[in-house]
Amino acid sequence: MNATSPEEAPGRIVLLTTSHRVAPGLLSWPAWQALHAADRVLCADGAHPQLPYLREAGTAVDEASPTAEELVALCAGGHTVVVVATGEGEPALTDGLARLAGSGRVQMPELELLPASYDLPGARLLDLVQVMDRIRVECPFSSQQTHKGLAKYSIEEVYELVEAIEEGDRDELREELGDVLLQVIFHARIAEDDPDAPFSVDDVAAGIVAKLIRRHPHVFGDETASTPEEVREHWLRTKAAEKQRSSVTEGVPLTQPGLALAAKLASRVRTAGLDVPLPPTEGIGYDLLALAIHAESKGVDPEAALRAAARAYRDAIRRTETENGESAAADD
Questions:
Q1: What kind and span of H or E run contains 112?
Q2: Domain containing 59 — which CATH number?
Q3: Most buried residue among 124, 158, 281, 326 by CB atoms closer than 10 A?
Q4: pLDDT at position 280
Q5: Are 140 and 106 in contact (CB under 8 A)?
């Protein structure tokens, strides 16, 4: 076997990728090792956010955008060249290297793709925050929106989410979750502009994180819970201590749909162990109230049950229309 001389050694190309969602300079240890051991470090983007940190760490970076042929030539003699990839990932360069390798006419260097920083779960939320920031500033519609103006959209999006859940449509579920999340981010961004009591999406997230930790002492504290019922007891006990409410009706939004409102009040009454008689008044509203309370006592969501029945009624209407060869006219 003939050994390859140092002059003939093909060398090594390391394509270093980084995430813009991670603070610049926070690179993996293998990435720093590759950078320190490299004979050349190249970057096509002179404004790359990593460059100041690399240079501060003593790594010389040349602002260059070599072709695939030029990069292979730089590796001749066993040299290692690290390419700090731009946000697009250097597709022209990698395509060129693939063509050279496929030609069989060039002795190719060792090729390595080295992720220098990784997205953590939830990192794409940072993109959403940045996009919302720009839209809030530059979009004529979004820049004028208020909490009150968006309220109706928030309600609509939640209803569409519930419909996707009940229909079992996974693709629609993913999209509707995004629409609901947009409402949260939008409202938080509007709140930043409040002159008297501003808060940000970070404040929103910090608040719910603190609440979840407080209300899960069996996870983050010393208490124990082995059943869902015990978890619910922890939650209700902690919530009661936090809210210090004088009535079980406090915190129940009266603007929610009627059946849901009735069921929520019934749930509060049952949880508190109160014996509250129904108002001795006749009428359809009171009949519906009694049905909602009965459903809640049986563990049935009356709103969901009525929606399911309404969907079945809708399907029956469509079947009748098809059978009769008719199309129902919209009544609005």
A1: strand 110-115
A2: 3.40.1010
A3: 158
A4: 84
A5: no
